[in-house]
Design goal:
The complex is a heterodimer of chains A (181) and B (149). Chain A has 181 residues and is an all-alpha fold. Helices cover 68% and strands 0% of the residues of chain A. Chain A has two domains: 1-96, Rna Polymerase Sigma Factor, Chain: A (Orthogonal Bundle); 112-181, Winged helix-like DNA-binding domain superfamily/Winged helix DNA-binding domain (Arc Repressor Mutant, subunit A, Orthogonal Bundle). The radius of gyration of chain A is 17 Å and the shape is globular. Classes of the chains: A mainly alpha (181), B mainly alpha (149). Chains A and B meet through helix 2, helix 3, helix 4, helix 5 and helix 6 of A and helix 1, helix 3 and helix 4 of B.
Chain lengths: 181, 149
């Protein structure tokens, strides 16, 4: 972890809100993007990622400086997204989370995957997967987590991580094949 | 190694997460099975596609707006805490005074007095029970460690 971030986190722990700004700015795009994949809704994603930063700030004194900030933040973000998905399924509202998600729109550049036809296609297909598959793909490909880290975060054995990840990729491949790509 | 087992380990192989022994068995099977080689090639393509995915970095104006949203929430939190504390104190004081007056009023029937007291006692019990439940859930929450790092 770079020294600047450690210093900023130490200032945050001393109560300096302004020091939190550069950290938020550094990870905002990645955070909102990952939340977008998990929730399948750009506006909800931005809100969830901001809520996660607020929760991170509230608990910043419990964070050990020297550790990388983003994996810690990503765990908070995942929990917020999970709660929101649970609330959505309880309400039985329009199931954005389960197969009817819409890709990020041009109107929300923070959440856009890079403008490239193939990537947009994969991104769109990714949003149609079920939440558990999206979650594990986000952990692997957007948060660069190792199997061991994923197993700890999800509370499952490494073998389960491997098979869930494989099933998620197979499901994604199937969607892409059905779309003819 | 069977094709089923190969399939089970394929993602681990692509991600470099197999043990040395598993990797060797995997590669031995790979040399002898055309179908599995094709599956693996497809999986690699998909993995590369996913690895290429990244999000557009927001511009300065977007970042400023985003940070402003977070900052406002941080400030609002302090406001909400003060408001809640104030509201709780005011309501408790008001309720206490109202009950005191009710209990001392000789024109109010004893039944109503008992009813109001039971109502208040019930609310207190419910509040304590909910509070205790929240605290217990927090203690056993397996995700709580994600905050404690």
């Amino acid at each position: 972890m770079d020294q600047t971030e450690t210093a900023l986190i130490q200032r945050c722990q001393a109560g300096d809100k302004e020091a939190f700004g550069p950290i938020v700015r550094k990870y905002a795009g990645r955070a909102a993007g990952a939340a977008g994949v998990l929730l399948g809704c750009p506006h909800d994603a931005q809100d969830a990622s901001q809520e996660a930063f607020v929760r991170a700030w509230r608990n910043i004194r419990r964070f050990k400086p020297g550790y990388p900030f983003y994996p810690w933040y990503a765990a908070i973000l995942r929990n917020i997204c999970r709660s929101r998905l649970r609330r959505r399924s309880r309400r039985k509202t329009v199931a954005l989370a389960d197969g009817h998600a819409s890709p990020a729109s041009d109107g929300d550049p923070v959440l856009l995957a890079e403008q490239d036809e193939r990537r947009q296609h994969v991104y769109g297909a990714l949003l149609t997967l079920k939440p558990a598959f999206r979650e594990i793909l986000v952990m692997k490909h957007f948060h660069d987590m190792a199997y061991k880290e994923m197993a700890e975060a999800l509370g499952v054995p490494i073998g389960t991580v491997m098979s869930r990840l494989h099933n998620a990729r197979q499901a994604l491949r199937k969607v892409l094949e059905e779309d003819g790509s | 190694m069977s094709c089923d087992e190969f399939n089970r380990l394929a993602s681990g192989y692509v991600d470099g997460e197999l043990s040395e022994a598993e990797r060797q068995r995997f590669e031995t099977h790979l040399e002898t099975c055309d179908a599995c080689r094709r599956d693996l090639a497809n999986l690699r393509t998909l993995t590369e596609d996913l690895d290429m995915m990244h999000f557009k970095e927001p511009g300065d104006a977007e970042l400023a707006r985003y940070w402003s949203g977070v900052y406002n929430r941080l400030e609002r939190n302090v406001g909400w805490i003060l408001f809640s504390v104030g509201a709780i104190l005011t309501l408790c004081y008001g309720a206490f005074k109202a009950i005191e007056e009710l209990v001392r009023d000789p024109n109010v029937s004893a039944l109503l007095k008992v009813g109001v007291c039971a109502l208040i006692a019930g609310l207190v019990v419910l509040f304590v029970s909910l509070l205790r439940e929240r605290l217990v859930v927090r203690k056993v929450d397996r995700y709580a460690k994600e905050i404690d790092r």
